[in-house]
Design a protein that fits this description.
By secondary structure, this protein is α+β, with helices and mostly antiparallel strands. The protein is 33% helix and 29% strand. The strands form 6 sheets. The protein has an 8-stranded antiparallel beta sheet, with helices on both faces. A 6-stranded mixed beta sheet has the order 1-2-3-4-6-5. Strand 14 and strand 15 form a beta hairpin. The chain is elongated and about 115 Å long. The termini are far apart.
């Protein structure tokens, strides 16, 4: 019996496309063709950038947790930029730093819009499939995530929109091209709902607060157009939202605990010492466990502790204007700054704010120490590297340290971004710079303390930064239409408050912003007040705490730091400096005890612990790339002996003859009586004939040196 095979052609009857123009470029959304099993999916094309966005939700809530389990992943596929991964396996591995930072930028605006009492797992995956460098895949992914969530059946109070703002030649630009971004004084990402701002992330070249606020407002105008576009898509193909199991804490239980234990919670929390507070809360927890754990379970006890602390903190702030540690609303915790703590490192600085303390160490290296970037960006190397470590002991936890997570990477990137605008260029300071911020103690705003500690460390290392940078955070408490901000939030205020608004900057202006919120957004009025409080706070820290300790970068580098010299050589001379198989450059490195980096554009960087070694290497390179001049004196090496004289190599590949009559100030009978192969000789160029042959004289060199000595002495 014959078997017949057949299949119908898939026609994708649900396939739809939607299009709008965003910043002069087409934004096209495709749905109904790909990823049919996701709760929501779309392929978003912005210019020639394409990002596939999928959202999924578990059917049931996760047991035993007291938080909303959301995961957001931005997957960089190197095929999107036509590159093969550089790893041994030639496939993408763990997410790179930029992918992690983008995941955080998308996570922050969407998270507050999910129901706070939902415990179902929600996963967001953005897969970058094609990249047009003029059309940001990060913004494309953010908009795609908003669309996928909005058209899905997952409960969510969106949509949001997002844009990137630049400041080019004093003009605000929406979603600038790659060329414009390279010239921009502002790198601002804004996400918003129709009415409020939900996320701000910025790096800036000392931009003032008024310009920054205007940029945020201009971004919101464009975002409203995106939201109108998304609402149109939802009206046509959006799914009804699912019902979910509400995991809200039992109201009667909370009221019973509040009635019985409120005074004890207030007494326990009324201290500026985190350790004392934790110790005082422990007996209350034990009482609650004995009274309610058997009936309600451990996760409910944890939530009761959280809810009661939150109630106390918010009521004190809103009703009494009182902070947990007794400070004024705009009062900063006790501050201290120190430099030069570690003798053998290249630079160190420690910044203390209350029980938050960060020690930052600077290490200077050659340009070869730059980090190779295997991501979707256009920069192949990273010259400035900032690492942030948050060990368990910094919060009093008894567990072993782990590798850096997304939080550590995000905090390090914020501090890095804050300092980039003030760093010297590679031409001014030809070093790779690595900063490591070690969090020694944490009670809120460690990222901002790391900005301050990093400035101190850079100045201690002698890095000629353009201006010192400080960081401070502003918090927020809201209730209906009521709201209030407070400066320099500590951990408990961050944990139970509604905002952590972090701003780094100089005397002149802002260099970095990162805003985390737990509510549905901020008004312009709140943002403006936060800007002003942070400005006054950072100026106080700079003028009263940091600059009195070290008013300017040290004039000399540490004796343990490499001394770096640079020069530019003709590109056609690079091969002469490197030599066949690297022989010449290796010989210079060995003889001068140094490292040499030669770049394709002719820049040469020489590093050595002893500056004299670096100068000798520079001199040697100059002799290679520059034609010898009559009258110039060189230190050469004897390569051959002849009856009539000795051949001396004054530079790799450059050899001249010292005639026997020019070997010494007195008569020489035999060449061997004065020199041997391998000897080093001081010689002067006396003639270069038409054939390029070099005549040298030791006699004239010695006479010139003696005459100069007498003239100076």
């Amino acid at each position: 019996m014959a078997l017949e095979f057949a299949s119908k052609h898939e026609t994708f009857p649900n396939f739809k496309t939607f299009e709008m123009e965003l910043a002069g470029r087409p934004l096209v959304v495709e749905t109904g063709k790909m990823c049919g099993l996701s709760n929501g999916s779309c392929l978003v094309r912005y210019g020639e950038t394409a990002v596939l966005c999928n959202v999924t939700m578990s059917e049931k809530p996760r047991d035993g947790i007291d938080f909303f389990p959301l995961s957001v992943d931005f997957e960089e596929k190197l095929y999107s930029v036509g590159r093969i991964p550089g790893s041994f396996m030639r496939r993408e591995g763990r997410p790179g730093e930029k992918a992690i930072l983008t995941s955080r930028v998308v996570d922050r605006p969407i998270r507050p819009l999910f129901p706070k009492t939902m415990r179902n797992d929600v996963c967001v995956t953005m897969t970058v499939m094609s990249v047009d460098q003029d059309c940001s895949p990060e913004i494309t992914g953010m908009i795609g995530t908003s669309i996928a969530l909005s058209i899905s059946d997952i409960p969510w109070a969106g949509p949001i929109g997002g844009v990137f703002m630049g400041l080019v030649d004093g003009q605000l630009v929406v979603n600038p091209t790659l060329e414009q971004r390279e010239k921009s004084d502002l790198q601002l990402t804004v996400a918003a709902t129709e009415k409020k701002i939900v996320m701000i992330e910025a790096g800036a070249n000392e931009v003032d607060e008024v310009t920054m606020l205007n940029a945020i407002k201009a971004a919101h105008v464009e975002i409203k157009k995106v939201i109108e576009f998304i609402n149109g898509i939802v009206a046509e193909i959006g799914k009804p939202k699912k019902e979910f199991q509400d995991m809200e804490l039992d109201h009667d239980l909370f009221e019973a605990v509040k009635a019985e234990y409120l005074d004890e919670f207030k007494a326990a929390m009324d201290t500026d010492d985190k350790n004392v507070r934790d110790a005082r809360l422990l007996p209350i927890r034990e009482k609650l466990e004995a009274q309610y754990a058997e009936q309600w379970g451990a996760s409910v006890i944890e939530e009761l502790m959280y809810k009661m602390q939150k109630f106390v903190v918010r009521r004190w702030l809103l009703d009494e204007g009182k902070r947990v540690d007794g400070r004024g609303i705009n009062e900063i915790r006790p501050l201290a700054a120190e430099v030069g703590l570690l003798p053998r490192v290249h630079g160190s600085g420690m910044f203390t704010r209350g029980q938050t303390q960060v020690l930052t160490v600077t290490t200077l290296g050659s340009t070869k120490d730059s980090q190779l970037m295997d991501d979707l960006g256009t920069e192949p190397y990273k010259r400035y590297i900032h690492h942030y470590n948050f060990p368990p002991y910094s919060v009093g936890e008894a567990r072993a340290p782990r590798s850096p997570g997304r939080r550590e990477i995000g905090h390090g990137a914020l501090a890095e971004r804050a300092l980039i605008p003030v760093l010297p260029s590679v031409e001014e300071f030809p070093y790779t710079i690595r900063l490591v911020s070690e969090v020694l103690s944490s009670n809120g705003s460690t990222s901002q303390a790391s900005i301050c500690g990093s400035t101190l460390s850079l100045m201690d290392a002698g890095v000629p930064i353009k201006a010192p940078v400080a960081g401070i955070s502003c918090g927020l408490i809201t209730e209906g239409e009521r709201w209030m901000t407070m400066l320099d939030i500590q951990g408990v205020e961050d944990f139970h408050g509604d905002m952590d608004f972090k701003v780094g900057g100089t005397h002149k202006g802002i260099t970095a912003i990162q805003m985390d919120i737990k509510i549905d957004g901020l008004t312009y009025e709140i943002i403006e007040e936060a800007f002003e409080k942070c400005r006054k706070g950072r100026l106080f820290i700079l003028d009263e705490i940091m600059l009195p300790v070290i008013p300017a970068p040290r004039e000399q580098l540490s004796k343990y730091a490499p001394k770096m010299l640079s020069m530019v050589i003709p590109v056609d001379k690079i091969k002469d400096v490197i030599g066949k198989g690297g022989k010449v450059i290796q010989e210079i490195c060995a003889n001068c005890n140094c490292k040499i980096d030669v770049e394709e554009d002719g820049h040469v960087f020489v590093s050595a612990i002893d500056v004299d070694d670096a100068n000798r290497a520079i001199h040697t390179i100059k002799t290679i790339v520059e034609d010898p001049e009559v009258g110039a004196i060189y230190k050469g090496r004897v390569t051959r002996l002849m009856n009539f004289g000795a051949f001396v190599e004054i530079a790799p590949g450059k050899e001249g003859l010292v005639h026997i009559s020019k070997l010494d100030t007195k008569r020489v009978e035999r060449v061997e009586d004065v020199v041997a192969v391998g000897d080093e000789l001081i010689v002067m160029v006396t003639e270069i004939d038409q054939q390029g042959r070099i005549n040298l004289s030791r006699k004239d060199a010695l006479a010139a040196i003696e005459a100069k000595r007498k003239q100076q002495g």
